[in-house]
Amino acid sequence: xxxxxxxxxxxxxxxxxxxxxxxxxxxxxxxxxxxxxxxxxxxxxxxxxxxxxxxxxxxxxxxxxxxxxxxxxxxxxxxxxxxxxxxxxxxxxxxxxxxxxxxxxxxxxxxxxxxxxxxxxxxxx
Length: 125
Known about the structure:
One of its GO terms (biological process) is DNA integration. This is Tyr recombinase domain-containing protein. This protein has helices spanning 3-15, 43-60, 70-83, 88-95, 100-107, 112-122. By secondary structure, it is an all-alpha fold. Helix 4 packs across helix 5 (100-107). The chain is extended. The chain has two domains: 3-41, no CATH class; 46-125, no CATH class. The chain contains six helices and no strands.
C-alpha cells in the first residue's frame, strides 16, 4: 500500500460515523465502512450497492449500463495495470494470486486494439 493510499484510508476512518463498539475480526479493527446497522460492509454489501446504482441509472437513462460488480472492477484494475506495463510479478503480488497464470490468463484482458497499440509502441522507426 502506498503512503497516499494509506492516508486516504486514514481520512475515511477519521470522517466515518464511529460504531458504538469498534468491531474486531481476527484481531483486526479500523474497518472503513459500515452498513446502516453498524455492521462491517462485506463484499455482498458492495454488490448490492452496485446493483442499486446500476438499476437507478438504467431507470433514468435510455442507454443501459452493463452489470458491474466489485469483481468486475478487480478484473479491470488488473487489465489496466498490465496494459500500463506493470511488472507481471508485482501485479501478481498486488492481486494476491499464488500462480502467475491466474493473473495473466484469467484477470488480464486484452483485445485487438490493445495488441495494435503494443506492436506500434515497440516498432523501431
